[in-house]
Write a structure and sequence with these properties.
The protein is built from 8 helices and 13 strands. With about 250 residues, the chain is an alpha/beta fold. The protein folds into 2 domains: about 140 residues, P-loop containing nucleotide triphosphate hydrolases (Rossmann fold, 3-Layer(aba) Sandwich); about 70 residues, no CATH class. A 6-stranded mixed beta sheet has the order 7-8-9-5-10-11, sandwiched between helices. A hairpin with a 2-residue loop joins strand 2 and strand 3. The longest helix is centred in the C-terminal third of the chain and has 16 residues. The protein starts with a strand and ends with a strand. Bound molecules: adenosine-5'-triphosphate (ATP). Keywords: ATP-binding, Nucleotide-binding. This is ABC transporter ATP-binding protein.
Length: about 250
């Protein structure tokens, strides 16, 4: 079982410290961990530290991985799409970047599967740079899936998706964790998605870890007021499912 934890992770840009002493409790294979927090809280910076593409103090520990070079797939907040490639080619390229350049039949099947899982099969021959923002976001997700990582770091992968596709993408993400045993860390602004799909929630605020636990434990009126500056509460709807009710900005 893969276990990811951090010890006093930090990051600074020039003289500004934007991430400070973030110690994440152990996160395990099979879990969806939502990372939430207001704008500029440090979510993307944390993901970049976890993906080891940004230097800084502290330690990120990853235990029990099969192949350290291939263990993590990271989807940035703004995946670029400048190359003149089709959707299929770009997803295949993402897979070959981690599995070597010899093309196997299994590679083509894996690309087909990743596109089908996100209901994008009919976009396979479209040119990447001609897609809509939401479609590009789904391609970024497919590029991560096709690498078959053990840890998936997704930085706001649903921000450009319509509600149906947000729910479908989150269902897929949850299945990757619960059915396939991946550890998924996902930055989200849509708190209802965190409530509905995450096993654990980390709240970042001002570059520090404000709280960590189940959604029920951390999405409290006090935490939401202190970090998001909203008056809000989680209450069961008429069907008995928990929903976030936002009364006002503070
Ligand atoms: N390359 C950079 N150079 C300088 N400052 C940066 C850089 N990247 C991020 N920052 C700063 O770090 C802080 C945290 O940014 P980050 O993108 O991690 O926040 P975030 O929680 O992901 O925000 P959002 O929800 O708006 O995407 C911000 O104050 C931002 O201005």
């Amino acid at each position: 079982m893969v276990v990811l934890s951090t010890h006093r992770l930090g990051a600074r840009f020039g003289s500004r410290q934007v991430l400070r002493d973030v110690t994440l409790p152990p996160c395990h294979s099979g879990e969806v961990v939502a990372v939430i927090g207001p704008n500029a809280a440090g979510k993307s910076t944390l993901f970049r530290r976890l993906a080891a593409i940004l230097p800084g103090p502290g330690e990120c520990r990853l235990e029990d991985v099969r192949d350290a070079d291939r263990a993590i797939a990271y989807m940035p907040q703004d995946p670029t799409a400048s190359a003149v490639l089709t959707v299929f080619e770009s997803v295949l390229l993402a897979r070959k970047q981690v599995s070597g350049w010899r093309l196997e039949r299994s590679d083509l099947m894996a690309v087909d599967q990743a596109l089908a899982a996100l209901d994008m099969g009919d976009l396979a021959s479209e040119i990447l740079s001609e897609l809509s923002g939401g479609q590009r976001q789904l391609v970024g997700l497919a590029q991560c899936l096709v690498r078959e990582p053990q840890v998936l770091l997704l930085d706001e992968p649903t921000s450009a998706l319509d509600m149906h596709r947000q729910l479908e993408a989150m269902r897929q993400v949850r299945s990757l964790a619960h059915d396939d045993g991946m550890l998924v860390l996902i930055a989200l602004h849509h708190l209802d998605l965190a409530l509905k799909f995450a096993d654990k929630v980390a709240i970042l605020h001002d570059g520090t870890l404000h709280d960590f636990g189940t959604a029920a434990d951390v999405l409290t009126p006090e935490n939401l007021a202190a970090t998001f500056r909203i008056r809000a509460r989680v209450e069961p709807c008429s069907q008995g499912k928990p929903h976030l009710i936002v009364d006002d900005a503070i």
